[in-house]
Design goal:
Shape: elongated
Strand order of the largest sheet: 2-1-11-10-7-8
Number of domains: 3
Structural class: alpha+beta
CATH superfamily of the largest domain: Transferase(Phosphotransferase) domain 1
CATH architecture of the largest domain: Orthogonal Bundle
Helix content: 25-40%
CATH topology of the largest domain: Transferase(Phosphotransferase), domain 1
Number of helices: 10
Largest sheet: 6 strands, antiparallel
Mean pLDDT: 88
Low-confidence stretches: 289-294
Amino acid sequence: MSELHLTFIKGPLEGQSLEFQSPQTIVIGRASTAHLRIPDGKLSRHHCKLFYLNHTWFIEDLGSKNGTYFEGEKIHRKALQSGDLILVGNSGMTFFLPHELQNLQNLRFCTLCNSKTSDFISIKENFICQTCFLQETKGLFTLENKIGLGGMGAVFQGSWQNQRVAIKLIFSEESWIESNYLREVKTLSRLNHPNIVKLFDAGKTPHFFYLIMEYVDGKNLYSLLQENPELPLFHRLHFIAQIGFALCHSFAKKVIHRDITPTNILITSLKVAKLSDFGIAKIQDQSTSGLTKSGEGKGTLEYAPPEQITNALHVDQRADIYSLGSTLYFCLTGRPPFQEQGEGKLVQAILNKYPLPPSHFNPKVPCQIDEIVMKCLQKDPNKRYQRPEELYKELYYWFHKLKERQMQ
């Protein structure tokens, strides 16, 4: 039986799997005449070949410029077994025999030591084997299951100093990543509020940064509302009022979040709302030059105010008020204020159009709540609530008002 299966885990064909039925030889290279053509600039035209001889598969280098590597060592010819990892140019592939595929297809290259492993920590596109991870962290904390992905890393549930925590890991490859990490630590260190996820500790290992934060046993607001479409309005308003209270604190500490969305609001099992993910936050009146990669800081487009789209570096607390209003709009209607398809059309709508009031989509919304939302969503920041305290007071008043009506 000469069937074979190749899974690409690195390079231009990453994520693809190819199966070959009964071939005797497979030439790999970037030439159109190769049996397996890979558009990899570091491959030779005919780089290497796989061939079947005496019931065994072999790989053989064909005099390539950059070499063929097996388990990190340059080779000329090598017999293959299922699970073997092959590196050619910028491409990495795992060799499998089909009948052994199910047990071995989860293997990955460790980003740090280049060994093959099925027991790894995944951080964005990087895979860290357990041996390297333990060497990196030296027992500072332990990880359990992954609970989220961020723009720069991954978030895990874990334990630290005998308590359950959320641990954000950021793989450090470029200088702007370190700048963003330092900004997030500096921002969170300023904040201490029951409606903001708390930072316990932060640090750096040789290859990644970590933040140890309060673990929230619950769901984000988006998921909660998707699973509970009949949740009463007063509960929805209460969640937003709590985040309004958090903004009162962050404003006092001169912190602008810049990415308030339903997915960045976590709801505990006791219905406490907590604002999370300060990854693109800024400290007001401080220069962020060099701290933001080009194009960053605009936040999640559907919830971002016009001025943040055009000049993210110079927004103030009124940008967060707009985004909280957009999030309230979603809470009341199940949709963001604008739903145009395509980034260009969406940007034009945010800059130039006004959304329909929430009551258009949900007749249960009182006109007074419509007025609060539409004031938050004014294009001109001067026409919005100017301070979070103003918005918080109105939200809290109407939360109690709607709760009383519900209980009657």
